[in-house]
Specification:
The complex is a heterodimer of chains A (428) and B (492). Chain A is mainly alpha-helical. In chain A, 69% of the residues lie in helices and 5% in strands. In chain A, a hairpin with a 2-residue loop joins strand 2 and strand 3. Chain A is globular, with a radius of gyration of 22 Å. The two termini of chain A are 33 Å apart. The C terminus of chain A is likely disordered. Chain B is an alpha+beta fold. Chain B is 39% helix and 19% strand. Chain B is built from 20 helices and 19 strands. In chain B, helix 8 packs antiparallel against helix 20, helix 12 crosses helix 15 and helix 14 crosses helix 16. Classes of the chains: A mainly alpha (428), B alpha+beta (492). Chains A and B meet through helix 9, helix 12, helix 13 and helix 14 of A and helix 1, helix 2 and helix 3 of B.
């Protein structure tokens, strides 16, 4: 753990040297500040969750740090100053992280509040529609403005929805598994048990579609299907999910112009290189310019990519740190996924297991959706890259997410271990 | 549930492997294609944002330099400014994000941005010193002479070229209309685009450096070349042949006679026909005395049909026709600078300079030195010969002939007390009614026996068509520049 933190700090010092040597931006003090925050987070883990997985926090900090340095570099290229705000949001994220560790001493207590979480999630979803509170930006009505603070409730919604799904599915797991009814070759559970889940999913999807927030819709859908599949252990859910997805995709493709636009851009961004295809083409140019080793921190021209510091930050990383930097980010997310799933496998409490799966899926799929969008593996759907992108809601929510994972890991590691082989055999 | 979790892990791993493959595709396999893509402005942006040195005149004026961009929201850190505006527009050229570069900005782009191999090697020594590795280009053109040329020409379309006959350095290099490069170097796309459109639509094409990128009928100034070819080929001497005194001469193969200006009668030996710019005599000289083959070969030794190796982009080739074998009337016309003969003002200045410099035509150039950021000289131009149309002895003959033109001929307005000055006027009739013409003068001057500076002046589209038009219109301009240039040479 200490080693990982030292490595993280080393990366920071190197990054700060590389950056300050090349761009005249007052990065030093901010970096000390940001590093101090990670130290605080680290001490909080040592103190309140001493047995927790040692990898997650350093990786999160590394991703946060890479994002921060790239954002500071983009700042130097002109435009507004995002780095200072990002440092502030990192501080708030770390506070949220410590608070989550403090106020949730036992994960299973959360199971009781599943309907509260459902309600919270739905309220958060609807908030952007409240006149005076909600605001539309970049074509998506996913923002809530409270005075000077702009917030994306969707980022928190994903947490509470994962909590609700985990709580509810564990509760009704056996009932859902029994699947007495048949629909053709597929066995379908009693609708009444599925009701609340379908309701949550349907409402969230509808709301999201009306907010034109495709990335988050996709993320919630993936979360829902994966958790249902893992909870019920029925692969039919994956098939049903795929069919539902295709149906939903076809429906929105035929009904919504903005969905068609996204698909068109994905298939051929060159038909309107100065208009709709501009962002994705400039991202490709930037990443191509980065090549293997990148142009160097702070030296990219990625400022010309719209949203270079948030949704498109991966393109900026690709330009400044090259294929190596991009691969590092991919590996970092894989390590988060690995740690999260290992935590899920190790705990023997179904609720914690399912929650860990849900949380890990959230981070893993969210990063996949946006990196896939930026590299044109998938159609582009605007969504933040966890820990890396500029943005407060995302940072705070993801730090809380990591705190919950660490809490699960700490609890299961502290429990007297049952022989793991037997446990798995039982599950098999 | 653990089995599902393991499968989920494999599924997510597959997703990331796909991302990694896509990343390789974009950053490695497609990288070159994207880099070369016409829509990819990354390279020009990089070039544009690089530190760039200044351009300085020979007498120390800053002609082009970069300053910090006051706009913090701009993606560009610097703005290129041109303190002398249009006075040096066609020397410095412009450096524009949207329209590229011209002039010295284009020709010495690598030196200005410190990208030459030599500068890069020097830069290695500065590894631990924070210093901008840029080059400052010093040009041979003087601000004071340029200003004199501009004032003398005024708002008449035309060009003024003054050249150091021994080195080929251009001392004055002006043409009107000119343009202010600052208008194209701005960072506001709308403004720059509008300026570009206006300049391209403007009468007189201010963006063209008429001095060396446009060619005109040289008229009688070309007789210097005809005489030179004759003397060098051995067919013409100061004594022989003596051309008959006549009002007109009709070349073979035609009924169309060539007249002298104003229908006057003239003739005689080389010096006499040169002084009064006798058309019939020079038409005969080219057609009968020298002949088509020797005229074509000889004019080539003066640089015709060959772009001068000036260190500025896009020099125009001066033209002497080469298809005379069955067209002697055309040769007769061409021998007096009419028909298809066309020359740039630079070319005619080089003609005068070669005569003055013992027959050696030096390579014309504007860059004298490139200095690094500490004003240490990185490279210096070494003068070299471009053409040698005359032996020194033959050059002396033509020189004396041209001195005679100033002493007692059509170019007397070029005379400067205390200096030995030679010249030749020219009037290229445009065939309009009322008659209009391009009026020319070329010449050289210096202390007796030591010609130092050559000039060429063309004033376009002037009213009148007499042989004296060139002397009246162009000579005062050439004289003003020549006199000041010689005074500066004597002073320095």
């Amino acid at each position: 753990m200490l080693l990982a933190v030292v490595a993280t700090a080393g990366a920071y010092v190197l990054a700060s040297l590389g950056t300050t040597a090349e761009i005249p931006v007052n990065l030093g003090p901010f970096l000390v500040f940001v590093l101090g925050l990670f130290l605080v987070a680290h001490i909080a883990v040592r103190r309140y969750a001493p047995e927790a997985d040692p990898v997650l926090l350093p990786i999160a900090a590394l991703l946060n740090g890479i994002g921060y340095v790239v954002i500071a570099g983009l700042d130097a290229g002109g435009k507004e100053s995002f780095a200072a705000a990002q440092a502030t949001w990192t501080a708030i994220g770390v506070v949220a992280f410590c608070t989550a560790l403090l106020v949730v001493p036992r994960i299973r207590d959360l199971q009781r509040y599943r309907y509260t979480f459902l309600l919270t999630g739905l309220v958060l979803l609807i908030l952007p529609f409240v006149p005076g509170l909600g605001s539309e930006r970049f074509g998506a009505r996913i923002w809530v403005s409270l005075g000077p603070i702009n917030f994306q409730p969707g980022e928190v919604t994903k947490l509470v929805l994962a909590l609700f799904f985990a709580g509810y599915l564990v509760d009704k797991r056996e009932l859902l598994r029994s699947s007495p009814r048949r629909l053709g070759p597929v066995r379908v559970p009693e609708p009444k048990y599925l009701g609340p889940v379908l309701l949550a999913w349907g409402v969230s999807l509808m709301v999201m579609i009306s907010q034109k927030d495709l990335g988050t819709s996709l993320l919630f859908f993936a979360l829902f299907i994966v958790m249902l599949w893992v909870a019920t252990e029925r692969p039919s859910w994956l098939i049903i999910g795929a069919l539902l997805f295709l149906a939903g995709a076809w429906f929105s493709f035929t009904r919504f112009g903005h969905v068609q636009d996204r698909i068109d851009i994905w298939l051929d961004p060159w038909q309107d290189p100065d208009g709709t295809g501009y962002q994705i083409i400039q991202a490709a140019f930037a990443m191509a310019a980065g090549g293997l080793a990148g142009t160097g921190l702070g030296l990219g021209g990625a400022v010309r990519i719209p949203l270079a510091e948030s949704d498109f930050i991966f393109a900026s990383i690709g330009e400044q740190l090259g294929l190596f930097g991009g691969t590092l980010v991919l590996v970092a997310f894989l390590m988060v996924i690995g740690s999260g799933l290992r935590i899920a496998v190790r705990t023997d409490q179904p609720f914690e297991k399912l929650l860990a799966v849900g949380l890990t899926t959230l981070i893993g799929v969210q990063a996949f959706i946006i990196i896939g969008g930026v590299t044109r593996l998938l159609p582009l759907t605007g969504i933040t890259l966890p820990f890396v992108s500029y943005g407060g809601s995302s940072l705070v929510a993801n730090y809380m997410l990591i705190a919950l994972l660490l809490r699960i890991s700490d609890e299961s590691n502290r429990r007297p271990r049952k022989p793991e082989v037997v446990a798995s055999a039982g599950a098999l | 549930m653990n089995r599902q979790i393991a499968r989920l892990g494999i599924g997510l791993l597959a997703c990331y492997v796909a991302l990694f493959a896509m990343l390789n595709w974009v950053q490695v396999l497609q990288a070159d294609e994207y880099a070369e893509h016409p829509l990819n402005t990354a390279r020009i942006r990089k070039e544009f944002n690089r530190p760039r040195g200044s351009i300085l005149s020979a007498d120390g004026a800053v002609l082009a330099t970069s300053t910090d961009n006051p706009d913090p929201n701009s993606e560009f850190e610097r703005i290129r400014i041109y303190p002398e505006g249009e006075l040096f527009g066609q020397v410095t050229g412009y450096f524009s994000f949207w329209y590229g570069a011209s002039g010295v900005e284009q020709a010495y782009a690598a030196q200005l941005s410190g990208q030459t191999v030599e500068q890069q090697l020097r830069g290695l020594g500065d590894l631990f010193v924070q210093r901008e590795n840029v080059g400052n280009v010093v040009v041979s053109v003087r601000k004071d002479l340029q200003q004199t040329a501009r004032d003398a020409l005024g708002e008449r379309e035309g060009s003024v070229v003054a050249i150091d006959v021994k080195t080929g350095e251009l001392l004055a290099f002006w043409s009107y209309p000119s343009f202010d490069p600052s208008s194209l170097a701005g960072l506001d796309h709308g403004n720059v685009e509008q300026a570009w459109k206006l300049l391209n639509a403007a009468p007189g094409q201010p963006l063209r450096a008429h001095q060396y990128q446009d060619r005109y009928f040289p008229g009688s100034t070309f007789k210097v070349v005809t005489a030179g070819v004759g003397v060098q080929s051995g067919t013409v001497t100061p004594e022989e042949p003596v051309y008959p005194v006549e009002r007109s001469w009709t070349p073979p193969q035609t009924q169309v006679p060539i007249f002298n200006f104003g229908g006057s009668a003239c003739g005689g030996s080389l010096f006499q026909v040169m002084e009064i710019s006798c058309n019939t005599a020079f038409a005969r000289m080219g057609t009968e005395t020298i002949g088509p083959d020797e005229m074509v070969r000889g004019t080539a030794t003066w640089g015709f049909n060959d772009a001068p190796p000036i260190d500025l982009p896009g020099p125009a080739r001066s033209v002497f026709p080469t298809n005379f074998t069955r067209d002697l009337p055309k040769l007769a016309q061409s021998s007096i600078g009419q028909n298809d003969v066309q020359a740039t003002p630079l070319q005619m200045a080089l003609v005068a300079a070669a005569v003055a410099n013992g027959g050696r035509m030096m390579r014309p150039h504007v860059m004298t030195e490139v200095r690094d950021a500490d004003q240490q000289v990185v490279s210096r131009f070494t003068p070299s010969t471009w053409k040698q149309p005359l032996t020194p002895e033959h050059a002396a003959i033509i020189r004396d002939a041209m001195i005679g033109v100033v002493r007692s001929g059509t170019a007397s307005a070029l005379a400067i007390p205390g200096y030995e000055v030679g010249g030749k006027t020219g009037t290229a009739q445009l065939g309009t009614e009322p008659p209009r013409s391009h009026t020319w003068i070329i010449g050289f001057g210096g202390p007796p026996g030591d010609p130092q500076v050559a000039v060429a002046v063309v004033v376009l589209n002037q009213p009148g068509a007499s042989e004296f038009t060139g002397g009246r219109v162009a000579a005062p301009i050439a004289r003003a520049v020549l006199q000041q240039a010689l005074a500066l040479k004597a002073g320095g």
